[in-house]
Each structure stands twice: as structure tokens, then as C-alpha cells.
Specification:
- This protein is of the alpha/beta class and 312 residues long.
- The chain has a single domain (15-284), classed as Lambda Exonuclease, Chain A.
- The protein contains twelve helices and six strands.
- Strands 1, 2, 3, 4, 5 and 6 form a six-stranded mixed β-sheet that branches.
- Helix 3 (38-46) packs across helix 4 and helix 7 (98-116) packs antiparallel against helix 8 (125-144).
- The relative contact order is 0.15.
- The structure holds zinc ion.
- Zinc ion binds next to helix 4.
- The site of zinc ion has 9 residues, from helix 4.
């Protein structure tokens, strides 16, 4: 992220609320509080045993793979491009060499992943090149269709990696980073966007997976609270980019490299998501504000499921 332009950028943000959102990423302070993240909650949703091993006992190190490496690099590339687009000049964004930027970000992400991985390789040159080429196709598509997704006339970029940090109950904080936040001045609406890199898009089983869709619904809840914005003015969206599209697709829509998906997020759905978060906290946090040290049970009555079995 090109930090150097932030100071000049301050002057360009006129809406005080947009400014507050934009600056929230630098307000993070270390804290003794317990942090609850969406990934912690979703891990528990998959399997409490897996959650125990990852978040309570910390027995499962976070392992890097080509998907996480590409995902990180692609996020950074898109965010750097959008920052130039909205806060520098459209012309400069258009002339950016996004392929080279993605390459640079992939190398950086691979190196740090390899260090985390005990300096063991987790991919090959061939595979990295394959993912980079896929990424090039996505970036080419984004540049070509940019106006349809990211209008500089009707949208303001209000946040990149916006930090959400809100108390759920005393001593328990929700912590999340929103990939992109946009403000739409004409309609006075906001959108919270989470970027997902995928192989060929989300199908019904992903779109209907409450464990996945909960992410943006929680983000909306805490974003509204943190910035004092009416929840009804906030839209949520997954911006899913596809590494693969069918060559001879029957419909033009199938050849799109981008799938925008807004999950159902009405009051009933939101209530369910908040209930499941509260149940999770009641299950894992004790009266002393610490995680309860006990044996958590796998979702499968036989004690092993697809999520936890590889670590047991
Ligand atoms: Zn399990």
C-alpha cells in the first residue's frame, strides 16, 4: 500500500464521515481484550474441535498455500489500483502496470508465506506462473470493465482494510478488517465489500452457506455501530473474482471474471447471525473473560469430521 500519499489524501476527503472511515485503519491499539474475529466464529461453526485446536490450544499453525498466497497478492493489487484511481488520477490508474504489481505482490506474499511455513516451499514455479497468468486475465477484465464496477462519478472510496473494533460485551471485542468501503453520495448509501478470489466463482452451496455469508452481515452490524450509520443505509457484497471462465460459454455472463453477490441480510437473517455469534461467545468465553479450557466436541457424533480429522 503506498502510504506516502495519505497525507495529501486527507485534504481530498471532504465528507467528515468518509474521512472518519478512511482513517479508522490507523486507530488500532494493542489491547488485553479478547478478540473475536469472523474467522474464529466460522471455524467454530465448522467444528468446535477444530476451533479448540486452532484458537484455544494454538496447535494448528496457519499454513500457507497457493490459494492464500494468490489471494493476499490479488487483494493488495486491487486495493493499490483503487487507491490510485480514487485518490490520484484516473489516468494514472489506467497506466499502472497491474500485471507487474501482481507479480511483485505474489513474490512478496510467497516469501512471507514460506518464512511462516518453516522456510519450506509450498508451491512450484509452474503453479505460481499459472496463478499469475489467471490473475492477469482478471486484472485485464477489471481494467476494461472498470466503469461498471468502480465509478469515480457516483462512488467514493471510503476505506481500504477498514478496521472494525467494537465491544460485543465487556472485555470481548469484535475485530474485523473490511476490504473495501464505498460511499454513494447521490443516494447517501454505503457499501461494504469483501473481495474473494475463487477458481470459477461461487455456486449455490457457497451462496447458501450461512457460515460464509455471516461475514459481511457481521461487518455491517459493527460498521454501523462504529461510525453511527443507519444499518438500512449499508449494503453488503462479495466481490468474487474467478481465475477460470469457460472458453465457449453459452452466455456472456459466464465469461465474466467478476461475480457480485449480496447475500440476504434482512432483519431476520441478521438476527440469526448475531444469535450464532452470541451462542459462540457463551460457549467459549467464561465469566473471567477467558476462553474456557475444556474439551470441545466435534460436530460429528463419531468424533471426527472433514475439518478436524487431519489434525487429530
Ligand atoms: Zn470435527
Amino acid at each position: 500500500m503506498p502510504k506516502k500519499i495519505y497525507s495529501e489524501l486527507d485534504k481530498k476527503i471532504k465528507n467528515p464521515l468518509v474521512k472518519e472511515v478512511w482513517e479508522s485503519k490507523i486507530k488500532q491499539k494493542p489491547s488485553k481484550n479478547k478478540h473475536i474475529s469472523y474467522s474464529s466464529l466460522s471455524t467454530y461453526g465448522k467444528c468446535p474441535k477444530l476451533w479448540e485446536m486452532m484458537y484455544l490450544r494454538k496447535q494448528v499453525p496457519f499454513t500457507q498455500n497457493i490459494y492464500t498466497c494468490f489471494g493476499t497478492a490479488f487483494h493488495e493489487t486491487m486495493q493499490e489500483w483503487l487507491e490510485i484511481l480514487y485518490y490520484d488520477k484516473v489516468k494514472n490508474a489506467n497506466s499502472m502496470d497491474l500485471d507487474a504489481l501482481l507479480y511483485k505482490n505474489m513474490v512478496k506474499s510467497y516469501k512471507s508465506g514460506k518464512a511462516q511455513n518453516g522456510h519450506e516451499h509450498f508451491s512450484s514455479e509452474k503453479e505460481l506462473m499459472e496463478f499469475w497468468l489467471d490473475g492477469k486475465h482478471i486484472l485485464e477484465f477489471l481494467k476494461k470493465k472498470r466503469g461498471g464496477y468502480f465509478s469515480t462519478k457516483t462512488m467514493k472510496l471510503a476505506g481500504i482494510e477498514t478496521l472494525l473494533y467494537q465491544e460485543i460485551k465487556p472485555g470481548i471485542m469484535f475485530k474485523g478488517l473490511v476490504d473495501l468501503v464505498f460511499y454513494h453520495p447521490n443516494s447517501d448509501r454505503w457499501s461494504i465489500v469483501d473481495i474473494k478470489t475463487s477458481t470459477s466463482g461461487w455456486r449455490d452451496n457457497q451462496k447458501k452457506n450461512p457460515n460464509l455469508t455471516a461475514q459481511v452481515i457481521l461487518y455491517r452490524e459493527f460498521f454501523a455501530k462504529q461510525f453511527g450509520i443507519d444499518k438500512d443505509k449499508i449494503d453488503v457484497e462479495f466481490f468474487i473474482v474467478k481465475r477460470r471462465v469457460p472458453k465457449d460459454a453459452e452466455f456472456a455472463s459466464m465469461q465474466k471474471r467478476v461475480q457480485q453477490f449480496s447475500p440476504a441480510s434482512g432483519p431476520r437473517k441478521t438476527k440469526q447471525v448475531l444469535e450464532s455469534m452470541n451462542n459462540f461467545i457463551a460457549d467459549v468465553v467464561g465469566a473471567d473473560g477467558q476462553f474456557i479450557d475444556k474439551e470441545y466436541k466435534c460436530v460429528n457424533p463419531f468424533g471426527k469430521c472433514e475439518h478436524c480429522s487431519q489434525y487429530l
